[in-house]
Design brief:
The protein has 444 residues and is of the alpha/beta class. The protein folds into two domains: 27-51 and 300-418, Aspartate Aminotransferase, domain 1 (Alpha-Beta Complex), CATH 3.90.1150.10; 67-297, Type I PLP-dependent aspartate aminotransferase-like (Major domain) (Aspartate Aminotransferase, domain 2), CATH 3.40.640. Helices cover 47% and strands 12% of the residues. The chain is built from 17 helices and twelve strands. It has helices spanning 3-17, 51-63, 80-93, 104-114, 130-137, 153-166, 168-171, 194-204, 230-233, 262-271, 273-276, 283-297, 300-323, 335-338, 340-343, 360-369, 399-443; strands spanning 37-38, 97-101, 121-125, 145-148, 177-182, 210-215, 242-246, 256-260, 352-356, 372-373, 375-377, 388-392. It is globular, with a radius of gyration of 25 Å. The structure holds pyridoxal-5'-phosphate (PLP).
């Protein structure tokens, strides 16, 4: 074995031992190729199986002048379809400009790697997506990257006050602060307190040198007027420097759009490496994304989002009361769903429902056996001690699906408890038998 092979194999086997080795799921267990009920994908509105969207896509595709490839980087080949979609999205989202990226990952990595300048500070929620971490790490804001506790305004305020105290350039406005949040967090289903953050900025940065960047990856299509996201829902468009909407989740396409001002767009075109040094989205991709936006504009997304929220409410109604009798480490809702009014400032329903358990893999395997696909999520994707099965509900799920899921999880927990009880009994019997034998022997 070469030195490289030995080192790579050792790292993988260490992950294996710690039960965190990643593997591609069995393709037969993915919802598109089998009859499994989908509680896993980010296809929140079930657009991927929408006959209306499919018909629209095929019809536009068959009429389009260009469908295959895109010919190169946007900097070399700037296709009509790409420009038209950008213009349309800038208008749809009420933004000065829009810039397409091949993925949400590229957009975050590109933005955060090049927009913060020397002397600037980047602050982010501790649960922010890996793509923001990658971007910030590559940025010029070296040794000026700080996280605050998830969704905690008190923690954020404390951090901002400390930074203001330590860095006069943030007070005199010669340097900038960037704050990265997700409007809906993908692993927790929690909502960023956007309005409160804007208030803090107005209070502490009256010179306007604090900039909010909102990743709407998981909120796109579901929240706000015509699915335009949480920023639009709260009317905060003018308070946000950049918004990211991805096409790969509820929109069942691929790619992303960054909504921002003209100067930043121009700067990204010059400096964002994941935009410059890559082939742009194919024309077919652009058509797919564009057809999904048709579904936002024609009201289909709104109707499906309402169906989805009905299912989420139903799931909570049947699950919550029955969890009371089950030990928390076996099966529990996270704090914000146990105490919706305290834990979640917005009171909104989220299709992402983490089911906290110390045994995510056995629970997921049990559900799979019953024909349901809900994925286990462990460290390093989530913090240590916060293992879970991540349940994603979809507009296309039925009430019966959701009831079967709740029942399946509760039955699993009861079977684990029963097994533990039987083991304890057997151990006790063994100990009693042993003591009895010793007693008998001492009498002989
Ligand atoms: C919050 C968030 N931002 C960005 C991304 C990346 O988006 P994309 O899948 O388009 O690369 C994801 C996807 O995992 C995400 O969850």
């Amino acid at each position: 074995m070469s030195a490289l092979d030995a080192k790579l194999a050792a790292a993988l086997s260490s992950r294996e031992q710690r039960q965190i080795r990643r593997r591609l799921p069995d393709p037969t267990s993915s919802s598109d190729s089998s009859s499994l009920i989908d509680f896993s994908t980010n296809d929140y509105l079930s657009f991927s199986s929408s006959p209306m969207l499919r018909d629209r896509f095929l019809s536009v595709l068959s009429e389009a002048p260009d469908i295959l490839g895109s010919g190169g980087s946007r900097l070399l080949v700037n296709g009509q379809a790409h420009n038209q979609l950008e213009a349309r999205l800038a208008h749809f989202f009420g933004s000065p400009t829009a810039l397409l990226f091949n993925s949400g990952f590229d957009a975050n990595a590109g933005f955060f790697a090049c927009i913060p300048q020397q002397g600037d500070v980047v602050v982010y929620d501790e649960y922010i997506h890996a793509s923001v971490h990658d971007g910030v790490r590559a940025s010029r804001a070296k040794n000026a990257q700080f996280s605050f506790s998830h969704n905690c305004i008190i923690s954020l305020r404390k951090l901002l006050l400390r930074l203001i105290d330590e860095r006069p350039s943030l007070v005199d406005g010669t340097c900038s602060l960037f704050l990265a949040v997700e409007s809906l967090y993908s692993m927790d289903g929690t909502f960023a307190p956007l309005a409160e953050i804007v208030e803090l900025f107005d209070q502490y940065f009256p010179r306007g040198n604090a900039h909010l960047v909102v990743d709407e990856a998981h909120a796109t299509g579901i929240y706000g007027p015509q699915g335009r996201g949480r920023v639009a829902q709260l009317g905060l468009e003018d308070k946000v420097l950049a918004r990211l909407h991805t096409f790969g989740k509820a929109l069942a396409a691929t790619g992303a759009v960054l909504l921002t001002n003209i100067l930043i767009r121009d700067y990204l075109l010059n400096y964002a490496r994941p935009l410059i040094y890559t082939t742009s989205l194919s024309n077919a991709n652009i058509i797919a994304a564009s057809c999904s936006f048709d579904m936002l504009e024609n009201g289909l997304a709104h109707k499906l989002a309402n169906d989805l929220f009905g299912l989420v409410a139903h799931f909570h109604e049947i699950l919550r009361p029955r969890l009371a009798s089950i030990p928390q480490d076996l099966l529990a809702l996270p704090f914000h769903l146990q105490h919706p009014l305290q834990g979640n400032s917005s009171g909104l329903l989220s299709p992402i429902i983490p089911i906290m358990t110390s045994q995510p893999r056995p629970l997921s395997a049990y559900l799979l056996n019953l024909g349901m696909n809900a994925r286990p999520i462990t460290w390093p994707t989530v913090p240590k001690g916060k293992d879970r099965v991540r349940v994603c509900l979809h507009a296309g799920n039925t009430r019966q699906d959701v009831e079967m899921l709740a029942e399946g999880m509760l039955n699993w927990a009861e079977s684990v408890l029963l097994e533990a009880k039987q083991k304890r009994k057997a151990k006790l019997r063994h100990q009693v038998n042993g003591a009895f034998t010793v007693l008998l022997e001492s009498k002989l």
